Amino acid sequence: MQEAHIRSIARAEFGRDPAGRVLLLRFLKEEGYRRTFAEHLIELAAGRRGASWEVRRAAVLMLEHQVLRLTDDEEQECAGLLETIGFDRRLPPVVELRRRMARLARVHRAIHGRATSVSALGDFLHVARHECKLTLAAYVFSVEETTNRVASLIRLSQGVPYWTSRDERSVRELTERERGVIAALNCPSCVYWTGDETPSTINSLVEHPIGTVVLVIKLPGSDREFEVKRTGVRGKQPLSVRRYRAAHRLYGGSGGGTSDAEARAALRLADVYRAVHDREPPISISMSIACVQTVPAWAGEASVIPYFTDRKIFGDGYDTMRRAMADAVEAFEGLRPFVLPGPVGLTVRFLRHMPPRQAVLTGTTSFRLESLQAYLGADGPDEYFTKGLGCGYSGDDARRFADDLLEEILGVYVPPDATESYEEYVHRALAVPANRQRADRLYIEHLREAGMLWGTLIATSAFSRGESFVPRNVGLKSRWRDGQWTVDIVFMDHDTLQIPVNGRLRFDPQTFVTGMGIDEGYLRTSDPEKGQSPTVEGCLIRVYGVGKDVQAKGADAFDAAVVDAYRKTRRLTMESPDVRKLFYREFPGKIALWESLMWSRLQAEREGTHAMWTARAEKLLQTAGNGPRFTDEWTRAASRAAKFLARYADIFDPRYLDFSRSRRQPEG
After folding, report:
1. For the range 5-14, what are the long-range contacts, defined as Cβ-Cβ under 8 Å and sequence gap of 24 or more?
2. CA-CA distance, 562 to 518, in Å (whole number)?
3. pLDDT confidence of residue 208
4. Residue 459 and residue 440: Cα distance in Å, rounded?
5. pLDDT value at residue 180
6. 296 in helix, strand or coil?
7. Residue of 133, 147, 141, 39 whose CA lies nearest to 83
8. CB 155, CB 239: distance < 8 Å
9. Would you state the pLDDT for residue 658?
10. Kindly report the CA angle at 77 between 73 and 83, in degrees rounded to 5?
11. From CA 399, how far away is CA 30, in angstroms rounded?
């Protein structure tokens, strides 16, 4: 590579910082490991030479390149070098750290000194922009400068603590540095807003995912992601009031009820899931909620009431916003209006129903199935670059975008040779034997995990009316676990999740059957060949490009997981004090009666005797001491449920209703 090319690349990547050009020249000069160069990179990456953030990121990846040049026999040299940046050779082992860094072997292998191609160097520097991908960034970027960098990319205003999670297990696996950054960011007196400088590029330190009103924070060198929910829209009016999809909305924000409901529902589900399965649930969990006190407005930071009341503070669109607010208040209050006259009165009445709050969540992912399906399709680059980011793109840009996505959904990824067509490149990438094997395995694992979650939910008569399972709220996240990269499926947005624990909610078969049916409708797909199926299964089929045989194995894995999770959950609600105490006292008996009713209905469907079933069902329910109204509601609910629960009939098998025998049934 000629020096003119290097200068041009340095200007594009590092701007006016001369350290960037010097760094690139020296990096391409060193073709092997050199201790003095590695120590220079440490000095540069740690910020001791006054380099820009962009240069420091590149220095981190170059340091990893040097470390990966060492052989396994040079472990002591590697450990000694890394100890200078705070690495403790006792945990994790050097060999594990090198294995984690080797995930990016695809960009390291293409670096050949001055013989490196422009495209290969571009690939290397592209990855260096993603702090979360740089393993050693966790050691060289301090907690303070990371939080300062995050703050520089967003807007801040004042808040008041409203709720803090009692859950400690969700952050137990975080490193000390991760806890430090999150503790600093999870400040209940701060409210975070998307700003004009907030990037929407995937894998940014702070990312405002396209089409959302959230901020995602991906810490340096970490596979953990944290989401700040409802951070407004770009511009001088982060919050407004609109009527959207037949509902009145705090546009850009979250009304207090939804954030409260999501936080508490997710914790209830996590408690049950952990008690039953002794593992973390594949869901997002709220860490804290803050009340919004001030908003970064048109003429500077303003308190919420003046922001929504004063035309001069709110700015353009004030009249439209106030009309929407008046309509919302009328709908909320109905025939019993809260008398509080005047412009301020209207604002206060609205805020009584929709007080703006903001939640910080853990266990999320910005790689939602709906977006992944679109981005990996033929028009993916147009959707992301042109429509999403509002910029042009080259063939190399599109290829790197595909590499980023495929690496996320596969955990470890082997790129194919470059092609002219983006669609063909993705197709060929998924056809690489190592990638194909991982894709097929992960597809089956994801459906098994989904079945395990849903089986647990229906065993507790819980449902979300589709909100927790619609593909826009389900995503994939690559994580480093047990010494290897894997990929988890994550279910998010639980504000409509209902789970009857501690007497807050009681088992109601009518609402349960309706909610459960909607959930199942977003999980499974009846015919993957018909269009873009809006289901988890349909999106996974397209994202991973699996064939018919693997689809069948995935369906079998889902069904088996539903049955296993259901039976285990039901058994432990009867036998385990730790599980049983999570539910109100009458719950086990109610569910057992429901199971008996469902089994009899399913048998009647199979035998063609459903016309005579109602009389038998009424006798069963009346014998249990229930009146006519109760009996009518339950029989109608069982009839409705039978239409779609027939394929899960095994979970109601009477062999698993006699819990006195369950210990002798290893499969039960």
Report:
1. 5/118, 9/118, 9/121, 9/122, 9/125, 13/54, 13/58, 13/125, 14/52, 14/54, 14/55, 14/58
2. 16
3. 97
4. 29
5. 84
6. strand
7. 39
8. no
9. 56
10. 135
11. 27
Residue 190's SS3 state is strand
CB 176 within 8 A of CB 337: no
> Running DSSP on this structure, what letter comes out for residue 546?
-
- The structure tokens 């006054």 sit at 50
Query: What single-letter DSSP state applies at residue 660?
Result: G
Cα–Cα dist 492/467, whole Å: 8
- Is residue 200 within 8 Å of 213, Cβ to Cβ? no
Alpha carbon separation from 187 to 158, 217, 652 (Å, rounded): 10, 14, 48
What confidence score (pLDDT) does residue 7 get? 87
Neighbouring residues of 212: CB distance < 8 A, sequence distance ≥ 6: none
Distances (CA, A) of 252 to 241, 244, 297, 468: 9, 12, 13, 20
| Amino acid, single-letter form, for residue 667 | E
Query: Which single residue is written with the structure tokens 């294995």?
Result: 99
Q: At what angle do helices 548-575 and 587-607 cross, to 10 degrees?
A: 140
Q: DSSP strand E in 431-527: where?
A: 474-481, 484-491
| 135 vs 92: CA distance, rounded Å | 12
Q: Is residue 546 within 8 Å of residue 443, measured between CB atoms?
A: yes
420-463 confidence digits (pLDDT tens): 899 999 999 999 999 999 999 999 999 999 999 999 999 998 99
Give the tokens for residue 428: 């060929």
Phi/psi at 488 (5° precision)? -105, 150
pLDDT value, residue 587: 85
Given a cut of 50, the residues of the chain with pLDDT beneath it are 531-532, 659-668
Asked if 37 and 30 touch (Cβ cutoff 8 Å), the reply is: yes
pLDDT score recorded for residue 667: 43
Instruction: Determine contact, residues 480/512, Cβ cutoff 8 Å.
Output: no
Token pair for 55? 């240069």
- C-alpha closest to that of 544 among 398, 382, 411: 411
DSSP calls for 12-28? HHHTT-HHHHHHHHHHH
Residue 404 is encoded by which pair of tokens?
């980023």
Do 66 and 82 touch, CB atoms closer than 8 A? no
Element (H, E) at 163: strand 155-164
3-class DSSP state for residue 333? Answer: helix
DSSP output for 87-115 = --TTSS-HHHHHHHHGGGHHHHTT--GGG
Tokens of 237: 């009016």
Whether omega before 18 lies within 30 degrees of 0, making that bond cis, reads no
The pLDDT assigned to 590 comes to 85
Place of tokens 């089956």: 444
pLDDT, one tens digit per residue, over 634-644 is 888 888 888 77
* b/e per residue 202-237 (b: at least 16 CB within 10 A): bbbbbbbbbebbbbbbbbbbbbbbbbbbbbbbbeeb
Number of H helices and E strands in the chain, helices first, is: 28, 14
